[in-house]
Amino acid sequence: MQATERRFSDRTQLLREVALEAGSLALAYFEKGTVPSWEKYPGHPVTEADIAVNKLVHDRLMGAYGDYGWLSEETALSRHTQRLETVWCVDPIDGTRAFMSGQPYWCIGLSVIEHGQPVAGVVHAPVLGETYCAERGKGATLNGDPIQTSTREQEDGCRMIAAESMLNHPAWKVPWPDMHLANPKPNATLLRMCWVASGTWDATLVLWRKSDWDLAAGTVIVNEAGGIASTHLGEPFIFNRSEPAQRSLIAAGKALHPLLVERVKGVRLPDPNWTVRPYDKTETTEQKPMADMPEAKQLLHIVIGGELKDVKGVEFEDLSKIDFVGAFPSYKAAYDAWKSAAQRTVDNAEMRYFILHAHRLLDPETGSHHHV
């Protein structure tokens, strides 16, 4: 262990040790070439390796700090966890698609969340030989050496990790300047954030919802490397809320970050923990999603989706191609269906799904309006 790693607390050292152990287990599966896999829900694969790594990490971390909450991509959510002040947040394998296809761009992401904020994080990419560590107030390292985000002060020419189709979409009123885009672009969000933290890339942008385990470890690493990780509105992340997800991601150095926020802040993306006005900035207090609220007296909820003409609006490109997911008798049922459909559109900002609440029905024959 390098001397620079000794700056971290015993708990962060534990995260690092467990990440390395989990990486060795995942690498053994990876080197087999073929790993049994299935879909958790449409568009979201999981492998036998994900489950095995999840169990190893759970046993090691909860064995050491059993009074912490447990928040993991491969474990059922627990309301008990949301009531605790300190929580382990784990992505056993971020970049499962890359893992399955034999690409090296996957990693193990482990973090500690206290009062909604990540205070320590480790991201370990076994094939790449990269291990990132950070602890609040103690800096960030790559393989034991201190790292720092870039000091770029302009968008033109910046090194960006983002979907090219999103940046080139004609709906942008002001076209994006020339930038050097990552190719290939890793689908592991934690890796993208770590590459920004190390200064290898200037920024990463995701205009779509990401789960807490996709962001927590990367957030503390970026912040401790001197950068900022936030939603596209510039909001700081609040983790371990009722719905463990954030509306979007911008990670960049402190000079570049506000320029990117200014450019994309007009894009309307819902806060997964919204109540009444989903496109407003998130308050810094806990919010309760409608999925957890008592059912309102609404009997019809329709879930639809399609490609938008403008990523900043809600007008569909072609009404004949609307995807009708279904009609549901409760918000909870509609929300579950929306979530499953929406998760299929990662990195495609113009493809969006919505829940339509029918408050009033019109009978064309009689002209009567029936309030639902």
UniProtKB/TrEMBL annotation:
Entry keyword set: Hydrolase, Magnesium, Metal-binding
Gene3D superfamilies, sorted: 3.40.190.80, Fructose-1,6-Bisphosphatase, subunit A, domain 1 (3.30.540.10), Uncharacterised protein PF13773, DUF4170 (3.30.70.2400)
Classification via PROSITE patterns: IMP_1, IMP_2
GO MF, any single term: metal ion binding
Cofactor(s) required for function per UniProt: Mg(2+)
Residues annotated for Mg(2+) 1 binding in this entry: E73, D91, D94, D214
Ligand binding (Mg(2+) 2): I93
Keyword Magnesium: yes
Record keyword Magnesium present: yes
GO biological process, one term: phosphatidylinositol phosphate biosynthetic process
Coiled-coil positions: none
Pfam families: DUF4170 (PF13773), Inositol_P (PF00459)
Protein family (similarity comment): Belongs to the inositol monophosphatase superfamily.
Protein name: DUF4170 domain-containing protein
Organism lineage: Bacteria, Pseudomonadati, Pseudomonadota, Alphaproteobacteria, Hyphomonadales
